[in-house]
Amino acid sequence: MKPIGDSRQNLNQLHPDRADERGGKGAGYVSEAISVVVIGRSLTLQERTRLRTGSQTPLSILAELPFGGQTVEEINRLHPQAALIMLNGDFARSFQFVERIKQESSDTLIVCSSEDTSPDVILQSFRSGATEFLRQPLTEEEINAVFARIEHARVRSMDTAHLGRVVAVYSSKGGGGATFVTANLAASLARLAAKKCCIVDLNMQAGDQPLYLGLEPVYSMYDVVRNFDRLDDQLLSNYLTHRSKHLTLLASPSEIDKEEEVRAEHVTRVISMLRAQASYVLLDTQHMLNEGTIAALDAADDIVLLMTLDIPAIRSAKRALDVFTRLGYDRKRIKVILNRFTRTPEFEISQIEKVLDTTIYATLSNDYRSAIASVNVGEPLVLSRIQSRLVREFSLLASSLSGIKSDDETPAPTRSGWFFSRK
Question: pTM score, two decimals?
Answer without folding.
Answer: 0.62
